[in-house]
Amino acid sequence: MCHTSINLLGGENKKASFSGGLIPLQNWYAPSLTSSEAGLAGWTLDDITGLLKTGISQRGAVFGPMSEVVHNSLQYLSDTDIRAMSTYLKALPQNKEPPQPVQYKVSKPLGEKLRADGRKIYTQLCAVCHEENGLGRPPHWPPLANNQSIQMHSAVNPIRMVLEGGYPPSTAGNPRPYGMPPFAQLLSDQEIAAVVTYIRTSWGNRGAPISPQQVNDLR
Description:
Blueprint: E1 21-22, E2 29-30, H1 45-54, H2 65-72, H3 79-90, H4 108-125, H5 127-130, H6 148-151, H7 156-164, H8 189-201, H9 212-218
Antiparallel strand pairs: 1-2
């Protein structure tokens, strides 16, 4: 349901199966699983099964609504069922375009200023866990470099993570998860836009800069 958009009656849009979109009422973005946006073709089965079973893997960690799914449901599936689910997800056709959310236009001068300011903030607050090179220390501190969830067309999830922080789920395979503190009270909209812009455009990441207004909309 989360990774497939719904129609006006609340049913799944079968023409857009697994193509992602903003989750109604929750304001988290469920990425497309049928495109390069968050397709799993490049993941190993071990990475996928680890993420679904424990909430963490060498490629990333789950947060937001997906954290609840793992904590309340997926961690209790058998290894055979998790492996089967992972195999199915990895085999999904990767030939559909991801949804294109409305984008705020950020001028080039503003984008460059945000990136410069964001580098300083990242060095002060983020590099201790995610490293200066963005490679992190997986599985507990996920990499930000070449991280698909950072570069998506929608910047909702990285903005919310910086604003609200969060923890991966507590699971049998990861009973004491490492979390991220919230920065909503410490950083202004401009500063959060700066550090998210820096993360989305550094280390080879190809995300677009974001505006302070986008941050304010989610604050």
